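FORM 7B: Structural annotation worksheet

SECTION A. Query
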Amino acid sequence: MKKLLVIGDSFCHGVGTVSHFKDKQNTKYAFGRYIADHLGLEYVNIAEPGSDIQRIIKNGYEYIKQNKNEIHLVIIGWTSGDRVGYYNEDTSLQMLGQYCS
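SECTION B. Predicted structure
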């Protein structure tokens, strides 16, 4: 079955639908789920709250590279261009331009 891939930040992840934090349950109620159901596509949501644009691109690229024959449609939710993040497996640090001087 062809897939709808959703990548992006908290809005694409569905933050607030179940939890105000990163939680796989949020993706069940994010807008991408309804689009995938309407189009009859398998739904894959790898969006992560707090992601900056570089992280969105990296995660999306890696997923598509590994699953290129299965992807039918991709939705990319761009975040603010001045969001900068530093990430590792345990934590992340985000900086927004409007708070830096």
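SECTION C. Observations
The longest strand covers residues 71-76. The CA atoms of residues 55 and 88 lie 11 Å apart.

SECTION D. Sign-off
Analyst initials: ____
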